[in-house]
TrEMBL record, chains A, B:
Keyword Membrane annotated: no
UniProt-listed NCBIfam families: thiL
Native source organism of the sequence: Marinobacter maroccanus
PurM-like N-terminal domain mapped to chain residues: 28-138
Protein name: Thiamine-monophosphate kinase
HAMAP family: TMP_kinase
Binding site for Mg(2+) 3: 30, 75, 209
Gene Ontology molecular function terms on file: ATP binding; magnesium ion binding; thiamine-phosphate kinase activity
Length: 318, 318
């Protein structure tokens, strides 16, 4: 099978399936064409996924298709953007039809679930690597940035933290317990918080998705906002499964492990006050933004840890 | 050096340098933001470049930075789009500061030359692979597609063909002759035909960039347009250097080798008549579009060769 046949069989079916608001020419030409509705901005982000770095060798291809698009889409949620379409650059060691079938099935599930239509791509031979770029739109000037946190803002996170990181310990477990299965589900099938995008752009001053770990990602908000913060480890939202599996170490996972794709948000007290219960019930307040620099965890400054920490792909070589 | 420091030092300087018409938030947040001017469409394309597949191992990093952005930008030229910005997903085996310095220098030269500003990216560890997505804009409805060729259209190509393909034979030449240097320049420093974009959208019915070889890429136009063509090998524009180096084989290079990043365009006879001399002087008419299927080269149908041919990355495995 050649490159063109491969694209035709596995990837063209992912284009033109949604009632896209903006994609007017999908895969198959030199470029795709998107018509951004009047009064809206294009919001976009690219993420690379490398075998052995971002996912294990011989990782299930249907999980890979889902996870990669979920991780990329999470950046749209963090900006408060509505999903539109995506591109895929896929590098494969060889044409394995079963692998492609399974991968495109996982990708298609995510594409449907997140409302992201395939706009274009490139498929080549080489070490297994994916690069996905997601496109969303948001009302002009309403995208939420990392730099908007203000002293006094409440810091909140969505969902529970640390599950995906803990799952790494059980990927090769031959007979996983129900608790292990619960955290593994977070790792294999993350859900980007696109459901919160409307609330993010309506109420939040700053937002980031937690891909590298809470301390690292909150550190990015503080650096961009030139602010500090105080957070309390006792407030961290932990799943029952994580607490049972990791005991006293559960907090470490919630603070320092990545791949959760939850959101970290900063709200002015007034906005928090006015936010609907339907939003607040999905969030947990873990601390407050400070004018003074430093990221204080239970009173101890861990900002030196937070700045270059998280999942820093080059730290080992530096 | 960590990932964030690496990005800050080598890649952030490529953002915010141009008087961008549309990029309103560049690298450093969860997403970049582009505001497409009213009445214009976003036009975008992604290309992957893998070491050992798209460029030789230990290839000069400054050449790599230039070539990769040039190749990606060529797709914008083929749509008749004006360049705006690009994203880069870069996977590197290790942090080599000299390599990064040279790579970003080549990339910056191309960024300046083509008017493409860095909008965002992702940098990770792994086998050397690049994925670049270029964004352009064009007046709504004016993007030129592959599917617009009509029977009777004249087929023209820009520049000269085959030089970059011939250069592959001399990449390791210790003392290259002036002719070898001339074709090597085409390979190392291709110029996407963004200078022709205005003419493309004003006069051409269909367009494609010649990245995989003339027969393959013209084949894409014919397949999308459900048409055939007759072309004459004697009309192919060959550089003097290629003719001297390859003699009777020069035509084969012009027909079947890739990496030239010239354009193949189809014009109605009326539009060709009215096109300015400044455009025509950069183009060579090589044939005509036919209602009957088939791609006839000097009267011999080579459409079976043209359809899956060219630089098909998976052909050897199929």
């Amino acid at each position: 099978m050649g490159e063109f046949e491969l694209i035709r069989r596995y990837f063209l079916p992912l284009g033109g399936r949604q009632e896209s608001r903006s994609l007017i020419l999908g895969p198959g030409d030199d470029c795709a064409i998107q018509r951004i509705p009047a009064g809206r901005d294009l919001v976009f982000s690219v993420d690379a996924f490398v075998e052995g770095v971002h996912f294990p060798r011989n990782y299930r291809p249907d999980y890979l298709g889902w996870r990669a698009l979920a991780a990329a889409a999470s950046d749209l949620a963090a900006m408060g953007a509505d999903p539109e379409c995506f591109t895929l650059a896929l590098t494969l060691p060889a044409v394995d039809e079963q692998w492609l079938e399974d991968f495109s099935t996982g990708l298609r599930s995510a594409s449907d679930a997140f409302g992201l239509e395939l706009a274009g791509g490139d498929t080549t031979s080489g070490p297994l690597t994916l690069s996905l770029q997601v496109h969303g739109t948001v009302e002009q000037g309403r995208a939420v940035r990392r730099s908007g946190a203000r002293p006094g803002d409440l810091i909140a996170v969505s969902g529970t933290l640390g599950d995906a990181g803990a799952a790494l310990d059980y990927l090769a477990e031959p007979g996983p317990s129900p608790d292990m299965l619960a955290v593994l589900e977070h790792y294999h099938r993350p859900w980007p918080r696109l459901d919160l995008a409307v609330a993010v752009r309506q109420y939040a001053n700053a937002a980031i998705d937690i891909s590298d770990g809470l301390l690292a990602d909150l550190g990015h908000i503080l650096a961009a906002s030139r602010a500090g913060a105080r957070i309390e480890s006792a407030q961290l939202p932990l799943s029952p499964a994580l607490s049972r599996l990791k005991g006293d170490k559960a907090t470490d996972y919630a603070l320092r492990s990545g791949d959760d794709y939850e959101l970290c948000l900063c709200f002015s007290p007034e906005n928090w006050e006015h936010a609907p219960e339907s939003l607040k019930s999905q969030l947990t307040v873990i601390g407050v933004v400070d004018a003074d620099p430093g990221l204080y965890l239970d009173g101890v400054d861990c900002s030196l840890e937070s700045v270059p920490a998280g999942f820093d792909h080059f730290r080992s070589e530096s």
